[in-house]
Structure formats: structure tokens, C-alpha cells
Predict the structure of Sigma-54 factor interaction domain-containing protein.
Amino acid sequence: MWTKPLSTLHLYEDEAARRAFLQQVMIGKSPAIQKVIELVCQVAISPWTPVLLFGESGTGKEVVAHAIHEASLTALHEFVPINCAAIPESLLETELFGVEAGAFTDAHVSREGYLMRANGGTFFLDEVSSMPLPLQPKLLRFLEEMTFRPVGGVDEHTVHLRVISATNEDLAVAVKQNAFRQDLLYRLNVFSIYLPALRERTEDIPLLIDHFLHLAQTDGAPTIQISDEAMELLMQYSWPGNIRELRHALERGQILCNGQVLRARDLPDEIRQLSVADSQRLNEFPQQLRLPPEGINLPAFIQEIERRLIAQALKECHGNQVRAAARLGLSRDQLRYRLSMY
């Protein structure tokens, strides 16, 4: 068996091995996920290039960040993640840059930060849109020079690492709202990868189901099967929580199912009820339509319906395009395309 360094060098130098590894990590055969795999394969051989991952919550951004790390030379060192939304603003600077003893009242000893830990490896900034504005210029300076000064320190420290950032928000909108620096966005967004929502790759759902059920299988126990009715519901559901929601739904179903077959009754209520409600609405809506005697301009009529529903979704979601797209069963890019068209 290879040690980690040998495995990493093998993936880095052998494109076929790298692609095979990524196919195992990112489950799916759809064109959408194959495009992601292709981009990851390309950027992995540039070990210091910053990468920005964007997409809805639950689409697997940290999984992709790990894959980039493992397929790069950075895997010889640590993968260090930090969630910008999970750490109080008052602590985030010291967590990033470290702190020198005596910098403030409670700083009794010096402590290195995440950036020093990630030296030579990968630093993963999750939910980077939550980075406080006062800290953004300091992060920008670090990204430009790869040097930093711990809080309360006087000496500059130099590191060499890859920065991967991730967001489920539209950073361009955040820039317009003065919530995110444009120059920082440019620095982070050297190489961007869009992670598709699960509803954009429904053909991958059966593969993901098999994968998650296999992961949860205990030694010697037979694999749990999915009934046809349950599979139909899982295929029809819009999955606003994406892959994370699918995995949790299967975990719940495995606990509730009797025997070795996961049935529709074992799925969460929102999947069973919303799937039925969607079908009912689709059946009822056409019955309310009547073709007028003089006829209609069908393309213009359909566009007007779509425009009104988009406007309503944006209003009800207070302008949040990610949430509005989820309500409409669209990806954010699909919604933005329609917004530009209308």
C-alpha cells in the first residue's frame, strides 16, 4: 500500500489515476458533475492556484475542496478548514493569523493560527461571504504577499499554500451591497468551479443512493434495497438541501424501515407530501387554462407566466436569488439567465 506522499505524487503525475480517484470521490455520471471532475483534474496540477467553489448549500463544496487537495502536491501537508460563519468576529483574526503572548489580556501564551498550520498544504475558507468587512483587507494583503503578522506581533511570517474558498451566496451581489470587497473577490476567484444542485443532476440520484447505502452498511449485513415507489419519490423531489438532504433522508429511512427494503413510508414527510402536492398542482393547473377563440401567442404567454413566477419568488425571498431559485426548482445560474432575458 502506498504511503500518503507516494499516493499523492502518483495522483499528481498520472492523469489517468487522478481521474479515477476523482470519479470515486465525486459520485455521478451526469454531464454537470463530469464538468466538475474535469475542472478539478485541471486545477489539481497547479498546486498554488486559488480556487473559488460556489453553489447551493449541501452540494458538496468541502468534498470537492478535499479532492483538489488530495490530487495536488499540497496533500503532502495539511488540509486546514475554517468556517467563517461559525467563529465570532472578535476571534476570527486570531484564529487565522495567530496571536503573540501579551497581545491582549487573555493572551498568556503565543499561539499559531490556521494559516501557519496550513503552510505547504491547503487552507479552506468555507462560507467566505461571512468574512467580516474589517478583516477582508488583511486577508487580501495575505493573499497578495503570502505573508502575515500575528495579532500583537512585529515579525512577518511567510507561508506557501493553496487557498480554496467556498460560498453559497452570490459574491457579486455582496460586492454591490458593499458587504464584500471587489478586490478580494478578484483575488479569490482565480479559478472558479460551480457545483450543480442535485435537481440539475437527477440522473445521479440512484448512484448516490447506492453509494450512501453502501457506506452505512454494517459488516455482514445485506444491503438495503429501495422500493420502486420510494425511488420515484426520491427522483421527483426538488432537494432544496441537495446531497446533504438526500443522505440524511436515507439515514432516517434505514432506521425506520422494516426488513431490508426502504419504502415510501420510511421517507421524511416533506418528501412524501411535497411530491404529492407538486403532482396535484401540475394536474390542476392545466385544467384551469382555456384557449381563447382568437388564439394566443404561446411563446409570449409562457414567458409571461415564467416572468411573473420569478418576480413573485424574488419578492417572497426578499431578493435572495439562491432561495428564489430553490423555490422555482432552478439553479442560480438558470435563474440569473432568465433575469437577464426578462
Notes: The beta strands are 51-54, 79-83, 122-126, 147-148, 157-158, 162-167, 191-194, 225-226, 261-262. The domain at 201-289 is CATH 1.10.8.60 (Helicase, Ruva Protein; domain 3). The first strand starts at residue 51 and ends at 54. Confidence is low (pLDDT under 50) at residues 1-6.
